[in-house]
Amino acid sequence: MRRKNLFFVAGMWILIGLVSMGLLMNVQGKIDPIPQKISPKEPVVALTFDDGPNPQFTPQILDVLYEQQVPATFFLVGQQMEGQEWLVRKIAASGHEIGNHTDSHPDLTTLEGPQILEEIQKTQETLGEILPDYTMKFLRPPYGRQNETVCQSSPLPLIRWDVDSGDWEDPQAEAIYTTVIENIQDGDIVVFHDDNPETVKALEQILPALKARGYQFATVSTLLGLKKG
Ligand SMILES: [Zn+2]
């Protein structure tokens, strides 16, 4: 090949490389938030994911939710956010809600008031460093464990769940699917964990199945707002 042609071919390849890199960055950088269009006539539920952000499974959950255009709520653990700042930003940018799941995931019923408060505040501070304008509205106590001290010490309302997907017990996707589909009702909050592949697989089946039954999806804030209204 002549030298001039060689330069031309090399130049073309560099150009193609730059263009595709640009496209890729644009695709990754731009996320349209999932809208919440709730009709009062149809049933509505809130899906929640605890214990993240998980670098392996949270992105997979986000992909399924995005494909299905389902908004959800992620109860994040403060210490888990370290090193996963990009993931925290992606959750918020996708239109999902972020809730407080404490800093180190302790059983809060074993702690005194000031320690409980510290667990909650530290998580808010960590999130504040990543998303300065974001304030978490709810606390989900780890293991759903709460008592009088926890309730009195928490500056945030406690949010538990109506349906436990049981995914923390390490079942197969099929079992998670059956548990959710058989137990879910209008107005329910469902708990999942974004730390295992079976939840991801189950979700791929659960979302279309619920949609086929007329279910709509909201964040916890939106769901509770609807209940009040
Ligand atoms: Zn948890």
Features:
globular; TIM Barrel; 229 residues; alpha/beta; 6-stranded parallel sheet; 6 strands; binds zinc ion; 10% strand
Summarize the structure in words.
By secondary structure, the chain is α/β, with parallel strands linked by helices. It has one domain (44-228): TIM Barrel (Alpha-Beta Barrel), CATH 3.20.20.370. The chain has helices spanning 3-29, 57-68, 78-81, 85-93, 113-130, 148-153, 173-183, 197-212, 220-228, and strands spanning 44-50, 73-76, 97-100, 163-164, 189-193, 216-217. Strands 1, 2, 3, 4, 5 and 6 form a six-stranded parallel beta sheet that branches. Helix 7 links the parallel strand 4 and strand 5. Helix 2 packs parallel to helix 8 and helix 7 packs parallel to helix 8. The longest helix is centred in the first third of the chain and has 27 residues, at 3-29. The radius of gyration is 21 Å and the shape is globular. The termini are far apart. The model has no long low-confidence stretch (mean pLDDT 91). The structure holds zinc ion. The site of zinc ion has 5 residues, from loops.
